Amino acid sequence: MRIFDPHIHMTSRTTDDYEAMYAAGVRAVVEPSFWLGQPRTSPASFLDYFDSLLGWEPFRAAQYGIAHHCTLALNPKEANDPRCTPVLDELPRYLVKDKVVAVGEIGYDSMTPAEDTALAAQLQLAADHGLPALVHTPHRDKLAGLRRTLDVVRESALPPDRVLVDHLNETTVKEARDSGCWLGFSVYPDTKMDEKRMVAVLRTCGTDRVLVNSAADWGKSDPLKTRRVADLMLAEGFTEDDVDQVMWRNPVAFYGLSGRLDLEVADTGATHEGNSILRGGE
Amino acid sequence: MNHPHHIPATPETGTTGDDHGTPDAPNSTAAPAAPAAPDAPNPPDSSDPSDTSDARGAGGTAPAPARPAGTSANGDRAGGKGGTGGEPTREGNGPAGEAPLPHPARTPPAELREKLATRLGEAARAWFQHALEEAAAHPGRHGPISVWELRLAEAGRRCGPAGADAVRVLILHAARAGTDALTRVYFQGTADERRAVLHALPHLVTGPDALPLVEDALRANDTRLLAAALGPYAARHLDDHAWRHAVLKCLFTGVPVDHVADLERRASGDAELARMLRDYAAERTAAGRPVPDDLHRVLALTASAAPDREADTPHGKES
Questions:
Q1: Which of A44, A204, A262, B219 is deepest in the core (most CB within 10 A)?
Q2: Residue ranges covered by each domain of chain B
Q3: Which of B223, B250, B257 to mutate to test the interface with A (most CBs of A within 10 A)?
Q4: Which domains occur in chain A, in start order?
Q5: ipTM value
Q6: What is the DSSP letter of B164?
Q7: Spacing of C-alpha B131 from chain mean position
């Protein structure tokens, strides 16, 4: 089984996670830039983070046989902080980089005017750079947030088939699907979706345009949730081809819209025999 | 432990009077294969990892990953209309099994360009040609970013990862990038772009001005940056203390010392390096761990006579 986790924050995870993910079949991940839990206070803090997503983290992932790409953006929560918004001016020079496969996570947190501005501006940046967009839907007031998100997408230069709306659930999946966007589901231990509900949604809405992710980060989360969903799909009568479509081909197709997906794991050269992380930690 | 490469602070017990920097040995320190490919690369698309059994037990030590199929990145519905995106250009890799490209830091640009041109697919070659012409015609900045910097950023997806280092080095060369431009590109670059800047240094910078870039890369934990930092430019300009620590860091992190340009010349007669190596060997032995083969190799080099100390290696010799 091959798995592509289309949304996971590996910066917050350990090398044990990388090992376990590889053992579970994960061969590719996309890491969206997001909030770090601790608020940032300047654009420079974003730039170091972006550099890390384009430098150190793919190197770490490659040592465990996992291809790593990223999506870059000003996240919805920090779009409200005027100390952070100047990072929007820095984004263009990052969005031309190899291995940036979308603009994201963008979207709404509290549905403020500042978030409106950042979302619209970044959908335009995606269109300008030939990139699709990963759009987070809010945790609070979710259905209203989804509707407002879809309105902004409709008014943008980016066609809906280049937009992935994420963190969907039973109450938002229908309208999201009708919009023509790609459909993302985050499976969590306690919140968001769980495996059983995910499989039930797949049964009613099918496997077309559906992506399942762990969205694992620094909170209570589980980087193997993708595999758990795949196992439950098989147990409940889905075919291996169905699983492959959801867990591999759909994310490959969506992020492939960037023209920048390179799923061959970069040879880390010098560390082929001696993993630098393990070696140094001896 | 996430500070694996903290080299133990080894107090300098007085210098040994070796101030390397002689032109004794030519720069032909047996240029090894390109750093990215010391091991035979796995053939692309070779296997379909549809079975996790092979994945189990893949420990962290260099899992030999089954290559996922589907590198085309064109899934069922990838309608890839891409502004600056474009289509993936895997063709740039050249036929499988071909010999690796010559080392981008140790090969004169003209020769590198010639070898590279035969390896790129048609679309990649056209893009590359155009990028070189643009860079030569517009080396300066206009607007927020110069056009060759954009080309530098997208070289990997245009020409394929195998040739990207060489392509980037040649774009930098065509743009006649000086220390200021190289510094900007390095610090605004991805790991791949940074590596290319390091490879370009011996072709573009004659004095020690660009050493801060080398020093930055030597602090990194990304071993590909470490390997690239130790090219001919570092061999010429890095001071003894930093150079010795860099060699030791190679041994710590498993970077083959073949990546260290001019190793023989700089190591020979270096008693302080020999002391550091012996101390490290003793530490490994005390811990019940093997001593890397490369350590013995470098130690043997230190025992050979110190070369004549004359003027610095003529700049630009590799170019």
A1: A262
A2: 86-205
A3: B223
A4: 3-270 (3.20.20.140)
A5: 0.87
A6: H
A7: 22
